[in-house]
Amino acid sequence: MIEKDFLSLERLTRDELEEFFLITDLLRRDSIYQPLKGKSAALIFQKPSLRTRVSFEVGVCQLGGHPIFLSQEGVGIGTREKASDVARLLSRFTQLIVARLYDHEILLELAEYASVPVINALTDLSHPCQILADMYTLRQHGRLAPGIKIVFVGDGNNVVRSWLEMACIFPMRFVLAAPRGYDPDPAILRKVRQSTESTVEIVRRAEEAVAGADVVYTDVWTSMGQEKEMAARKKAFAKFKVTKSLMALAKFDCLFMHCLPAHRGEEVTEEVLEGGQSIVFDEAENRLHVQKAVMARLLGFRYSGAGRATTLRHVAGAGGKR
């Protein structure tokens, strides 16, 4: 259930997922809704960013608001400034906080002390906005059906964590192809296996994993903050590269997805990334549209539909102090 903040996908319901999609559809075709008109949003970025920063800045502007970019150098959240102090200060200046951080605990502290909505724009633990956009992209391509087989080839990282959280909401067959030592947190694995209609598998051979796949997904082998592990990771993941021959083992109409940026020639070849099965730039564009829906929803707007007449209505008291 969505409360004040959007920190992960763990409490999202199937109905709320569909509502996000409907709000996204509406905002894509109609620009009259500006829930941030005359308001400001603080964007705290510890990590470098292209897609996330641009999509949120543009999204805030399109919703009528003013984005304020705050770098780690300027804020020093968790070092020069306590997260609790940052949260309380920004709550007096802005109506929304978006944070792209390393430590998920800092995000939780921000949300605890902020009186305005807080959005997780990525932490080392999870990346919910990315997976929401990925699901919307699959829906856009007519592929989002219960039982869809999604194969992630690579590290059991924050993106995989959010895919597993999504598997608790939407029925799917999720398969992770990863070398030993790079599995996701056992606790989230237990949760998804015990509480959903989805199935989750971990296999050690990419060729075995992709057989019958509807979607093949990958990410960089070395994420930000793991640079010292680069050589070891390249060796460990050498047999987990997505190639044309690997894609040929999946369904003939299998889609290829990547959250970007890509290290071409490492986790994926150029011909797959730029090939006809790739929808990576649709994913990237949909970050903008889906995040606008998240912001609108947290600010108190709800989807209303009656036949062909659709609108967003504001719920009094939503999107503010708890």
If you had to describe this structure to a student in words, what would you say it looks like?
There is one protein chain. The chain is α/β, with parallel strands linked by helices and 322 residues long. The chain has two domains: 14-126 and 286-314, Aspartate/ornithine carbamoyltransferase (Rossmann fold, 3-Layer(aba) Sandwich), CATH 3.40.50; 142-278, Aspartate/ornithine carbamoyltransferase (Rossmann fold, 3-Layer(aba) Sandwich). 39% of the residues lie in helices and 18% in strands. It has 13 helices and eleven strands. The chain has helices at 14-29, 51-62, 72-75, 83-93, 104-113, 128-140, 158-167, 186-195, 206-210, 230-236, 244-247, 270-273, 280-298, and strands at 40-45, 66-71, 96-100, 118-120, 148-153, 172-177, 199-203, 215-218, 255-258, 301-306, 309-314. A hairpin with a 2-residue loop joins strand 10 (301-306) and strand 11.
In short:
This protein is an alpha/beta fold and 322 residues long. The protein contains 13 helices and 11 strands.
